[in-house]
Amino acid sequence: MNILVLTSVYPQPDDPNNSGVTPVVHYFAKEWVKQGHNVLVVHNSNKYPSFVYLLSERFKGTINSKVGGFIPNKNIGVLDYQIDGVKVLRLPITKKVPRKPFSSKQINHQYNKIKSYLKEKNFKPDFVTGHWENPQIPLLSMFKEDYSCKTSIVLHELHYIKKSNRWLNTLSRDIDTVGCRSVSMSQKLLNIVDTKDPFICYSGLPNEFIEHAGYNKVPKKIFNETPLKNFVYVGRLILRKNIDVIIKSLNDVYPNKDFKLHIVGEGPEESNLKSLVADLNLDHNIDFKGKLSRPEIMDLLRSSQGFIMVSEREAFGLVYLEAMLANCIVIGSKNEGIDGVINNNENGFLCKSNSVENLVETLNYINKLDEETKERIANTALEAALKFSDSKVAEHYLRNAVKS
Q1: Which end of the chain has fewer CB atoms surrounding its CB within 10 Å, N or C?
Q2: pLDDT of 76 above 60
Q3: Which CATH number covers residue 28?
């Protein structure tokens, strides 16, 4: 099958750090190539006016942190490249204001550029899928009309759909199937638009990670009656991740400062978080590790007891699955992306996303559990994570996206 993927976010070879870029769409595309499909990705990357790139890193960081998006460090142009056998065309599209939709003129111009490229490559899509609303929803409508192909959109948020009836009408009329990154997002979508039940587009874990954990090659963790002492956070250091909530909660739960928190990731909130750590006199307890590779993250998770991420507007949160596979006791956000994969008090814990009080209560509850209960919850989490291999979730996605 010829699969065309439209996305606003994709790894780029000329941005080796890929700061702020989630590779989630690439994981699907890579698996489809392995499964024998002909895949072409069009990366509709945001390009800002030239003056934006001249702003100080601190000011750009403030914008990134507040809007939850990210402004790249450099002005990048058109690029034709391959990653892991996936053909990619990057076509920048100018965005004057973050979180605002592109104009109809811009959308039409972008569509014509994509169409010309497809003609040049003699690529006629059988199926076109998009990730993120803007500009994918209007582009998919055009592909539906011109190519009479199957179309699908996977929603990572509901920012534009909530604000525009035009977007809602296009979604209902021209897109064959709709996917959401979580059960909670699916429920929110059904509250605002009359559409078929969306399929859930889960992320997965590398098959080799699953095999490594699934054949008992990694000893399961042994917990005891004493409180958890070793925690990890992995993700961007931005406001909506509520990392300050984690730091303040651990400070309250452990007055003797007998705990360790490893913070993995980079972002504009790093200096503020380090100031908070210094103010609370937690410099010896909290370790900022910067950016780590995926294998390094897994090693750190395997050597830790607990994973905490209580972020807001979290589409899914792949790192939760990685922590579950590493046999950690995992704390996530209630009514966010991971809710439904984590079931409270069964294979992990859920609490309010921005509440020190609720996280303190959850940690105190966990610390009072007996050894057997802690191990049961951690082992149940591992068993749940084993079901989410990259190959399985990619098959699930494609099967549900192309159905009538």
Answers
A1: C
A2: yes
A3: 3.40.50.2000
Closest-CA residue to 214 (of 222, 206, 223): 206
In whole angstroms, what is the distance from residue 244 CA to residue 62 CA?
Answer: 16
pLDDT in tens, 21-46: 788 999 999 999 999 999 999 999 98
Question: What SS3 state is found at 323?
Answer: helix
CB of 230 within 8 A of CB of 306? yes
CA distance between the termini of the chain: 16
Q: How far apart are CA 227 and CA 305, in angstroms?
A: 10
Residue 388, exposed/middle/buried by CB under 10 A (0-12, 13-18, 19+)? buried
pTM of structure:
0.83
Contact partners, residue 289, CB within 8 Å, separation at least 6: 262, 263, 264, 300
pLDDT, tens only, 89-137 = 999 998 877 778 889 999 999 999 999 999 999 999 999 999 999 999 9
Please indicate, yes or no, whether residues 56 and 166 belong to a single structural domain of this protein: yes
**13 & 154 share domain:** yes
CA dihedral 325, 328, 332, 336 (to 10 degrees): 10
